[in-house]
Write a structure and sequence with these properties.
Low-confidence stretches: none
Strand order of the largest sheet: 2-3-1-4
Shape: globular
CATH architecture: 2-Layer Sandwich
Distance between the termini: 15 Å
Number of strands: 4
Mean pLDDT: 97
Order of helices and strands: EHHEEHE
Helix content: 25-40%
Number of domains: 1
CATH topology: Alpha-Beta Plaits
Structural class: alpha+beta
Radius of gyration: 14 Å
């Protein structure tokens, strides 16, 4: 059964429009890599007051998301995004998993 997960990331102040622009122009190879890894229905929301980004996605039971950080396309995307959001030393976006507290099917 597919699983929905949610997480929070941190956008640097003043970069909301640039972040959205870059996602409007997402690398086609990255979009395909996400789909190939079992990811679908992926949405990112922005809270302009806190500059938090909230990601929600669905992944298949047999997803391979754990392998994505080792791919060249993911590393290239993270490097492309590192100047607009909080990352670690390897350009991996800082993520905080979110716990679902309510669901209305």
């Amino acid at each position: 059964m597919p699983e929905r997960i949610a997480f929070r990331m941190n956008l640097f102040p003043g970069y909301a429009a640039e972040y959205e622009k870059r996602h409007d122009e997402i690398f086609p190879e990255l979009a395909q890599a996400l789909k190939d890894a079992g990811v679908s229905d992926y949405t990112i929301w922005h809270d302009p007051e806190s500059n938090h980004l909230f990601g929600i996605l669905t992944r298949t039971d047999d997803h391979t998301m754990a392998e994505l950080p080792d791919t060249e396309i993911m590393k290239r995307w993270w490097a492309h995004m590192a100047d607009v959001m909080e990352t670690d030393a390897n350009n991996v976006p800082t993520q905080v998993p979110l716990k679902r507290v309510f669901y209305l099917p």
